[in-house]
Amino acid sequence: MIADDDEKWLTAATAAVKQNAFYMQRAIDSNNLKDALKFSAQMLSELRTSKLAPHKYYELYIRAFNELGKLEIFFREETGRGCSIAELYELVQHAGNILPRLYLLCTIGSVYIKSKDVTATDILKDLVEMCRAVQHPLRGLFLRSYLTQVTRDKLPSIGSELEGDVDAHMNALEFVLQNFTEMNKLWVRMQHQGPSREKEKREKERNELRDLVGKNLHVLSQLDGVDLGIYRDTVLPRILEQVVNCKDELAQCYLMDCIIQVFPDDFHLQTLDVLLGACPQLQSSVDIKTVLSGLMERLSNYAASSVEALPNFLQVEAFSKFNYAIGKVVEAQVDLSASASVTLYLFLLKFTLHVYADRLDYVDQVLGSCVTQLSATGKLCDDKAAKQIITFLRAPLEKYNSVVTILKLTNYPRVMEYLDHETNKAMAIIIVQSILENSTHIATANEVDALFELTKSLIKDFDGIIDDEVDEEDFQEEQNSVARLVHMLYNDDPEEMYKIIFTVRKHILTGGPKRLPLTIPPLVFSALKLIRRVPSGDENPFGDDASATPKKILQLLNEAIEVLSDVSASDLALRLYLQCAQAANDCGLEAVAYEFFTKAYLLYEEEISDSKAQVTALHLIIGTLQRMRVFNVENRDTLTYKAQGYSTKLLKKPDQCRAVYECAHLFWADECENMKDGERVVLCLKRAQKIADAAQKMTTASRGTSSTGSVALYVELLNKYLYFLEKGNPQVTGDTIQSLAELIRSETKKVESGAGPFINSTLRYMEFQRQQDGGMSEKYQKIKMEWFE
Q1: Which PANTHER family match (predicted)?
Q2: pTM metric for this prediction
Q3: What does the DSSP 8-state code read for residue 441?
Q4: Nearest partner of 104 among 154, 146, 55, 139, judged by Cα
């Protein structure tokens, strides 16, 4: 309903403006000054309305403004035809209503200034004073906006046709400042016009009119006579006085932003203390974050665009002033939220990183100031504030792209302490990802300790935090990142690397049963890499009891792996024990290697009960033991016979058979003559064949027919015999192989075997070897192939 009324009133007022403008133009065309003034005054009388909303009033004003441009041209032409400009200036003041009179006075006043018959100062002073007669906020704002518009190109300035002396420049400056002051007062007064229930509507309307006031500051910034001295001593204090004293949130926020945007960067830099000094005096409801961020962003861009400007930042101590000002703002605005205060320090941090990137002490100081502010709030429960902290902490990480640099900031971990567990973990993931993406190598134990303290939410189990609630896939991804992180910890110096391993172990072992199986393996393999770089032997190569030796490193790993057996990760612990045993073998540490095998055997006996897991574990044990060369005869026999005993106790006969014939490799090593026992090899193979026979009988008894699986076992055994035949085992003869081949033929006839492709491949291989030249062919010639037919 109100919108319809506005449209109706605007339509009526616009029609009146058009009608009077038509008659005014006709009078202008006929050079009738009296009628031109008459109809122009009637046209301008439409601007006296109080019924229109600001945006509707603006449409009406623009129509009148366009017509006044024609009238101004007419006035100039009249003075060219001999009409006295002074008389015209007096004549327009006879208009009946004050508002049309002042519009006409401003129009003829602009012509009067151009004529140079009087000084511009006198006319400007006269106009700005007489405009005080209109105190209605809306009408007064547009009247003074018109005054600014028609006089902006008539102000005395250096190099223009109206160039004057210093006094003239100062008077022009005074005119703009006075007009700005009056306009701001009118603009602020609008909030009190009308009932309180319409306050929100009025604030919206005021916001639409803010550019009318801001134009004055733009004009000020364009005046040639305004140098740094005048700006510092006159312009800025006068503007800030008006900004602070108006005590209006909208005006203060907008005008502070205008000051920052319209005046030069070097002016801001040299008057930083004055501008920042006004910030704590602003209303508590003012969005001070926007004001300060705008200023810091402007100066950051200035520093980035001009290398010559950087010394000025140091000279004026810009960082100290910003830091002090933000502290004062936080102190003055007691209701400032945690999110808002963190945002302020975030802007200061970004400014510091842009302008003082090489000053880590400044960056750390900002972090410390943030800690001081957060100390009053404790752990952050506000999601918005927590997100701001994440952004705050990411800023230096993204700037330096080096976690090593971040570790030098003593207050960085102190800020992270105010995050809740989940947010802290999210930040820890960001830190780890930064290391991985930038391939950052952490090279000292102290740095590693500091890093793991930063990322402890990914590594350590905390009381009251249940990881079972975490998505399993996410948890696995987090711990995989930690595992990758361990491999980024490296130092060429074995002694320092040992300290790093020791430090990592200290932190890793604080994890719980879900974490340890994922984080201990990378620790073990990182340590095993170190063992390869450390001289072997029990003697200390560095002459220092605290120094690294293979034995000490393996003892450290022994303690770490023991933890896995306590957290239901026996399979993994057994694998790692065998890896360490292999490393001890390479270093010639027999006692240590035997200890690792002993622990692996104990785990196999006591912890591994699943039949499939037993088969896998046993094959790993046999494979590792076969490669061991450090054991004496007694120790090797003990471990070998133990492995054979485990093989015969597996649940399924086929598994027993395969494990037993794998044990044959424990008695034959190509490169060691003292580890070639052909008789034991054959004994193992025959024992395996007996187990295969037993498996065949059990299958026949239960199913009434021979089994395909048993035939496959025989073929596997045949391949083992062929392997040892080629290796030169004198106990493996053609007769032995021939008898096994005959057995395979007879069993194949009893059942339509699925092992046919396996048999055929074996036979083709044997035929191929028979046809080769040399000793290998002779070995295969002793085997008769007729059984195949």
Answers
A1: VACUOLAR PROTEIN SORTING-ASSOCIATED PROTEIN 35C, VACUOLAR SORTING PROTEIN 35
A2: 0.80
A3: P
A4: 146
